[in-house]
Amino acid sequence: MELIAEILVSALLVIAGLFGLLGSWGLVKLDDTMRRLHAPTKATTLGVGGVLIASMIYFAVFLDHLTFHELLITAFLFITAPITANFVAKAHMHRDIKERDLPPTGGQYGWAGYDEIGDAEQPIDTK
């Protein structure tokens, strides 16, 4: 049983390291803000999640100590990373991109559905 746990923990650490390396390399190599969002939110999150799961398995098998801290941290990362990327992408769009340069959304109101200052119940027409 311990041999299988050692192999599993080692495999998780190697895979997590590869994901972390790939995410860091993508963050450095990609040239645009919108493209750079994918590296830390996807690859690096999987890397940190793999290390935390490996830590949880190690403590459960070798030290007979069941911990859920690592699982909670992993869940927190998987929940917050996409939300943070969405906020960064929206801030980048509002700050650096003109609306005429955006692709069509197919919706009635375009990219901004509501007036920032006015009543949130009244949609604005962006056409």
Give an overview in words:
The chain is mostly helical. The protein has helices spanning 2-29, 33-36, 38-62, 69-96. Helix 1 (2-29) runs antiparallel to helix 3 (38-62) and helix 3 (38-62) packs antiparallel against helix 4. The longest helix is centred in the N-terminal third of the chain and has 28 residues, at 2-29. 13% of the residues are buried. The model has no long low-confidence stretch (mean pLDDT 81).
Question: How many helical stretches?
Answer: 4
Q: What is the N-to-C succession of helices and strands?
A: HHHH
Strand content: under 5%
Bin the helical content. Answer: 55-70%
Note the quaternary state here: single chain
Unreliable stretches: none
Characterize the largest beta sheet: strand count, sense, and whether it forms a barrel. none
What would you call the structural class?
A: mainly alpha
Q: Give the C-alpha Rg.
A: 21 Å
Backbone shape: elongated
Overall mean confidence score, pLDDT = 81
E-strand count:
0
Distance between the termini: 64 Å
Provide the fold topology.
Layout: H1 2-29, H2 33-36, H3 38-62, H4 69-96
